[in-house]
Amino acid sequence: MQAPPQLAAGEPQRPADPGAAAGTEHLSSLKQTHLQELAALTGLGYARLQATTDVAEILQDARATRNLPAPVDLRAPLIALALALIVFAIGPARRLPKSILRRPRVTRPSQSYLM
């Protein structure tokens, strides 16, 4: 790979493509009328944002929004709720002393009482 040729001071920079036409147009130019025509052709709207433009206001405009029904799967939240209830139900029982959790033994009377 070769390094690009160095330009002398004051020498105009040549375009990378020799067949490209030189012009005064910049890549950052705004062609508002063209964008408005494209928006009209595609059925979209056009809004130019400026420093004072409130984006939230534009997005909440009735022309920019539409409500669509969407299916919602409730299994995941219900499973999470069931799991949380199980954890909270079992959790305190695991903290109790093991002697409380065991069934009490039925004591048999000793033989000394019977005599």
Structure report:
The protein has helices at residues 32-42, 55-59, 75-95, 98-101, 111-114. The protein is an all-alpha fold. The protein has a domain at 76-101. The protein starts with 31 loop residues before the first helix and ends with a helix. The model has no long low-confidence stretch (mean pLDDT 75).
Structural class: mainly alpha
As an assembly, this protein is: single chain
Q: What low-confidence regions span 5 or more consecutive residues with pLDDT below 50?
A: none
Q: How much beta, percentage-wise?
A: under 5%
One letter per element, helices H and strands E, the order comes to HHHHH
> What's the count of strands?
0
Proportion in helices? 25-40%
Major pleated sheet: none
In DSSP terms (H or I, runs of 4 or more residues), the helix count works out at 5
Q: Span from first to last CA?
A: 112 Å
Cα Rg? 39 Å
Overall outline = elongated
- Give the mean pLDDT: 75
